[in-house]
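hi!! sorry for the late reply, been swamped w classes. u asked for the two structures so here they r. pasted raw, havent cleaned anything up. first the sequence of the first protein and right below it the tokens
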Amino acid sequence: MKQALIFDLDGTLVDSLCGIATALNDALKHSSLPTHSLTTVRGFIGNGARVLITRAVPAGSSEQLIDQVEQGFKNQYEVGWPGGTTPYPGIELLLETLQRSGHPLAVLSNKPDAFTVAMVAKLFPDIRFGVVLGQRAGIPHKPDPGGALEISTRLQVNPECCWIIGDSTMDIETAKNAGMKSIAVTWGFHDRARLEATGADHRADDSGDLLRIIEANCL
């Protein structure tokens, strides 16, 4: 069996910034709170919905207010994300190529699990991901290695034969914590300089570059 490829979702497979920002700002406005630009929201993404909301509301906000905005965000996002989420250029062809070549494929995201599963199913209906995991209640999110190791077990591929591919320092840290290899992609939401400093095994600047790295290293 070829080595397994575990993809992050937001900022790696899909550009979801507009969908997230629209739902977030709608929830903030509903609670009479200041909204944020796309650039600012971009910096909030990556640690799950709760952290997203905590970063977006004014400093010192009560847990009750954070709960209210988080629920409003989830309600808005549930109906609105398809209008603001698209695969990055070349990603669909990349996944089709990897699927034909026999790589076990999976998704591991800090996005709530229901959104993660729905998004993958809608945007990549022809790709057979062996496992798709988002953030679940009571389960630590990345960079905790638990989700990555669960995927390894369910795919029946040893951790040392798994690669995590993502756009954030958290993805690279998750790979290290799980004893897996990593590929950092530079087209996503996170600062390139910080990403380059994480010590990923490889770095890809576009989908073609990523495919070349996989074909050369992930046999």
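now the second protein. again sequence first, tokens right under
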Amino acid sequence: MKEKVLLDTNMMIYLLDDHILDEKISKLTKILYDSDKYIIAIHPKTFEEARKIKDQNRKDIFISKLEVYKIIDNPPKATEEFNKCVGCKNENDIIDNEMLYAVARNCVSYFVTNDKHLLKKAELINIKDRVLSIDEAIEKFKQEEKVVIETPVFIKKEFLYNMNLNDDFFTTLRFDYKGFDKWFIKKQRNGEMAYVTKTRDNKITSFLMLKEEDENEDYSGFEKPFSPAKRIKVSTFKVADTGKKIGECFIKIMVNEAIQKNVDEIYVTTFEKQESLIYLLKQYGFELFTYKNTTKSDDTEEKEAIYVKNMKDKSQYPYVQLKDQRIFIFPVIPQYHKLLFEDAEREYQISIDDTQGKNTSANAIKKAFISNANRKKIKSGDIILFYASQDKKAITTLGIVETTWNEFESQEEIFNIVRKRTAYDEEELKQVARLDSLVIMFKHYITFKNPITYEFLYNNGIVNGYIQAPISIEKEDLEKIIEQSQTQNMFEIC
């Protein structure tokens, strides 16, 4: 389970609002962005501060971005004794003290702030080692984040009767769900299948099982029952082999099935302790709907949270809202394209003997792209169309920018950020990346079944010459591309 790092409200405003990021906040974000050990947490008081924003549109956007992060659930309120000890003179002190109290009561592992008064208060109550200035946080977390070279992932859909129920992988599931073995055997006999990854000695390392449900399904066991609809239930979602973006690949699988089967919703039941899974789900549009009681193997009951993704809501992944954001075409050389967008490379296969981690980026929805072109003004929300140069000479994929960086202290710093999201290993990266390279973190939304050829782009006036560097195009140009690719159902044009 990841340790929670609480950021003060001012840092969250800089991080999420439309500011140019402060250099140190940018550096801290780089470290925590894709950490295996830490997760950014939000105190409910930050929402109270956000609700004071006067501009309604800016307030709504800011709050929606906050909701993606891990929110501290029902933190204890600072006592009168605590407030008296650290000092409490005004409303700002009340909010600051609530943050500190969350640390003192171990709701989070660390609190990062540059507020000198808060840092002094932390000394008074002997938690200075966990209330860090931004410089201290950068130094601490940078040292603890280890560089790991990932190995390839192979996901296969297999019959349950070809799986060993006594595999150690199922031990925790057996404990959390009474009657798990009986349920599993029944599914085996019914010829059910699941998506799995395995080690070379046939041990299961991840498991995704989906079930299609119709309007007649019984949801009476839920505290708030569903209305009749077509749904995909995620019967089982477990990833033991972490760090390889299998979870994101599972998200892609369930979303693709939902689109193919034209269901209204996808839902997942999970215990609140599964913080990493919940964080992942929320990033792709799943929202808490209700709870249900689940009996464990020791006959105790525990509530499971039910998270739902509305597949008819086109404001969420995998659908693209086409507003007034900027649109770019980026050329990608064949070698990199094959590794980053494997699903656009139907003839491309990676050997099981490839241990350089070059398939990990293909599994991820979030990917990293490194450019040395003079395009530093790309920002969150912009659309990038990736053009496979040299061989295909066609636009194959579409992504939406999540964040960008273009100032680095070393190539090692770049590699630490992109290592889980790029096809390059560290040595290859040294040949490509500069300290002023543009690193773009984006979500891969669409792979065009009908790639958009250079001839189409040129004949329709979208480009006026060879695509050798990033170029910007207009909204009307993208609409032509959408029509040609026959992906109108994946877009909402605002």
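hope this helps!! also noticed smth abt the second:
The first strand starts at residue 3 and ends at 7.
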